[in-house]
Amino acid sequence: MKNHLKLCLCMALMGTPLAYAEGTRTRAEVEFAPYLAMASSLDCAESATASQALSPGTLEQRFGRLDSNGDGKITWEEAIPSREQDFARMDTNHDQHITPTEYEGAMPFGTFDRNTDGAIVQAEFMATHRRMFLKFDADADQRISLPEFAAAQLAAGK
C-alpha cells in the first residue's frame, strides 16, 4: 500500500503543473505557483518530505476525515466543515476576523486577505480555500482524489 501511495503521489506531483493553460495564468495560478513548483520538483523516490507525508496513517487519516461519505473522493461540500473549523480555531478572540497575529497558515497572510485590510474574514478564507481546492483538482472533476490530496498536502508542507 505504501508503494502504491508513493506512485500516486509522484504521478500527482508530476501532473499538477501540466494543468496550467499556457499563456493564460490566473491570479490563483500565480499565487499558488511556488507551492506547485515545490511539490513538482521533489524527487519522489528519495524525498524525505514525500516519505513523511506518506508515513503510516497520517495522509490517509487526514483524507479519511474529510471524505465523509467514504467514496474515496473529497468534494468541496465535504471540505467546508474542516475549513470552517480552521477559521474558528485561528480566530482566537472570536471577532470573526483573523489578524496576522492569529494567523497560523502555511501560505502568506496576504493570500487570504484579499481586500488587504489587515484581517481575514470567513468569506475571504473560504474563497481562497475554494480556489486552492479547484487548483489541486488536477482532473477537474470537482472532487479531490487521494493523489491530488497528497500533492496539496505536500505543497502545504504537511
Per DSSP, what share of the residues sits in E-state strands of 2 or more residues?
A: 5-15%
Q: Helix segment count? A: 8
Mean pLDDT: 75
H/E topology pattern: HHHHEHEHEHEH
Oligomer: single chain
Give the neighbour order of strands across the main sheet: 1-4
Give the strand tally. Answer: 4
Distance linking N and C termini: 20 Å
- Inertia-based shape: globular
Write down the Rg. 16 Å
Helix content: 55-70%
Unreliable stretches (pLDDT < 50, length at least 5) are: 1-23, 25-29, 35-56
Secondary structure class reads: mainly alpha
Number of domain units:
1
Largest sheet, in brief, is: 2 strands, antiparallel
Walkthrough of the structure:
The chain is built from eight helices and four strands, in the order ααααβαβαβαβα. It has 158 residues and is mainly α. A two-stranded antiparallel sheet has the order 1-4. Helix 1 crosses helix 8 (146-155), helix 2 packs across helix 8 (146-155) and helix 5 (76-90) crosses helix 7 (122-136).
List keywords for this structure.
158 residues; mainly alpha; two-stranded antiparallel ribbon
How would you summarize this macromolecular structure in one to three sentences?
The protein is mainly alpha-helical and 158 residues long.
